[in-house]
Amino acid sequence: MAQFEIVDDFTYEVCLLPKEKALVFVDYLASIGIKAKAKESMTGRCTVYVTNSFDMSRAKREVLRYANSPFDSKYTKASWDQGKTINREKHLNTGILFPLSFDLSSITTIVELICIAIYVLSLIDESLVIQYLALSKSEEFSSIQDYYKLITPAFVHFSFMHIAFNLVMFEAMARPIERTFGKVKFFSIFISVALLSNVTQYCFMTDLNGYFGGLSGVVYGVIGYSGVLSRRKDLPPSFNIPPGLLTVSVIFIFISFFLGGIANLCHIGGLVVGMLWGFYDYKKLKQ
Length: 287
Prior knowledge:
It is a single chain. By secondary structure, the protein is mostly helical. The protein is built from ten helices and seven strands. The protein has helices spanning 19-31, 53-68, 73-81, 107-124, 126-132, 160-181, 183-204, 216-229, 245-256, 264-286; strands at residues 12-18, 36-40, 45-50, 92-93, 101-102, 135-136, 211-212. The chain has a three-stranded antiparallel beta sheet. Mean pLDDT is 78; it is low at 3-7 and 85-99.
């Protein structure tokens, strides 16, 4: 796989891509006779450069093809033909007892760390967490500052099993999305799913004294997104979710209506928003 080098004679800018995509694209350009290099920016994204205007025109045409089918085998084959591998970001693997892979620059990890920090805080003062971060039907939203509570319930958990299950599922489903489509796309999915799933639960709550929290609405959202988008045949195998997981999730939501203490409408809202994102990107990528 291509490595980052100091840009010298490479002064003709072609495109800006996430790091791993840029490296794959540079290797592909080399395989078709275009000398290219990738320069990393402060944001972690990379600008691809070539050495002359003729190659720049060719490379710009190629980047359009790459954007339409980034997982075509010819791109990964170009890297393998050079006998190189991707240099992954350094991360902290927390092991079997707590199977999270902490890449400290990723949105997935940041969300997980916030959830853990708030859970620890709730062990010290649960009433404080419920008052300021959970969402209750009695919330009046008397000022614009109160609307942050439409997002923060996603970070609140009420038991060890609650947070453990959600974080393991979130790690398994969310990180492949972020690695495949980038931080901006994943952040957009996360915020929209968290917001709309929480709003759905809030709107249909009947108990004025009740409150809710948890990442499960977002978990259902990323399951819905992955379940729809994994129907594409050109996605990397690591992105595809197990067959039937989306169906099982829908069945579990149905069963949950007969159980108590579960924010079912938050789950439904998250699943629907995630699937809508999936259909949007599925159609967009096919065009």
